[in-house]
Amino acid sequence: MPTVLRLDGLRVVIYPADHRPAHVHVIGAHGEAVFNLNCPDGPPELRESYGLRRSEVSGLKHALAGSIAALCRHWRIIHGGD
Predict the structure, then answer these.
(1) Res 81 pLDDT > 90
(2) Which ranges constitute the DSSP H helices of the chain?
(3) Cis status of the peptide bond prior to 21, with omega within 30 of 0
(4) Residue 60 · residue 48 · CB < 8 Å
(5) Percent with pLDDT over 90 in the chain
(6) Which of 5, 33, 64, 79 could covalently link to 44 via disulfide, CB atoms 3.0 to 4.6 Å apart?
């Protein structure tokens, strides 16, 4: 599971054998959130969250939006296509 970005102590990962649509898992010590990327231009959309506070999830969504092009590029490199 390649870590493609780090945000405030959390890892943003893309699983190589994962399914479409393009998405990332944001993993921390106390929880995880999954965001659909809506490539190529976003915005990222929360799909599910476990153990993270609502304020954390909101901040993550904003941070991911600022990196959407790079995240979509990583998804294409790992999975091919769009």
Answers:
(1) no
(2) 54-65, 68-79
(3) yes
(4) no
(5) 91
(6) 64
Question: What is the extent of the structural domain holding 9?
Answer: 3-79
Angle at 9 between CA 35 and CA 36, to 5 degrees: 5
pLDDT score of 8 more than 90: no
Question: How far is Cα 79 from Cα 56, in angstroms, rounded to an integer?
Answer: 28
pLDDT in tens, 20-60: 999 999 999 999 999 999 999 999 999 999 999 999 999 99
Domains of the chain: total: 1
Taking the alpha carbons at both ends of the chain, their separation in whole angstroms is: 19
